[in-house]
Design brief:
Elements lengths: L3 E4 L5 H15 L10 H4 L1 H4 L6 E7 L2 E12 L2 E9 L10 H15 L4 E6 L4 H9 L3 E3 L16 E5 L19
Parallel strand pairs: 4-5
Antiparallel strand pairs: 1-2, 2-3, 3-4, 5-7, 6-7
């Protein structure tokens, strides 16, 4: 069963921080803390501004996934903080696919021309997930100057949410991280 997707609420804060930092540190061995991620500590101020937003995936009352869309201006948005609990990646839950579909639908309805994301080399499943969803690689030198690069990001992708016929991610890579 696909988890419920809804916009972030302040009561989600502790669960979102635990999920994101837990995956970053425990699953991928990235030495990072919540304090080093100001956007994670104040989601409404960072994501729920302009045309941006932040969503959570919930299975009953448990937060099992996140995705953020940062309005960076000039018609562009940055996709950030896409994390899904291992238990909810792929079939039968497909939480990552549901989160990404929600984010891209919002992007279309709010007339973004481009959604750009950065990820790390070690997130190989994320690369496959984004590529199956229709994201195309973009070289770091081709990123717009207004795209806020994260310290650990080395691989970048973009998509035009207005494009029709994009592929829907459906494999085990569901639950990419960005």
């Amino acid at each position: 069963m696909t988890p419920d997707i809804r916009p972030y609420l302040p009561c989600d804060h502790d669960a979102v921080v635990a999920l994101v930092v837990g995956i970053q540190r425990d699953e991928f061995g990235i030495p990072i803390t919540a304090e080093e991620q100001p956007d994670l500590l104040d989601i409404p101020r960072h994501y729920q501004q302009g045309r941006g937003n932040f969503w959570v995936a919930r299975d009953t009352e448990e937060i099992v996934g996140t995705i953020g869309l940062l309005d960076i201006g000039q018609g562009d948005a940055a996709l950030r903080k896409m994390f899904v609990a291992p238990s909810h990646r792929g079939a039968p839950h497909r939480a990552g696919s549901a989160l990404l579909a929600t984010c891209l639908d919002w992007s279309r309805r709010h007339h973004f021309t481009r959604v750009i994301l950065g990820t790390t080399e070690q997130f190989q499943a994320a690369h496959r997930f984004y590529e199956k969803a229709g994201f195309r690689p973009i070289l770091p030198g081709d990123l717009p100057a207004h795209f806020p690069r994260m310290r650990l990001d080395t691989r970048f992708y973009w998509i035009s949410p207005q494009e029709e016929g994009r592929a829907a991610p459906t494999d085990q890579a569901d639950g990419a991280t960005s």
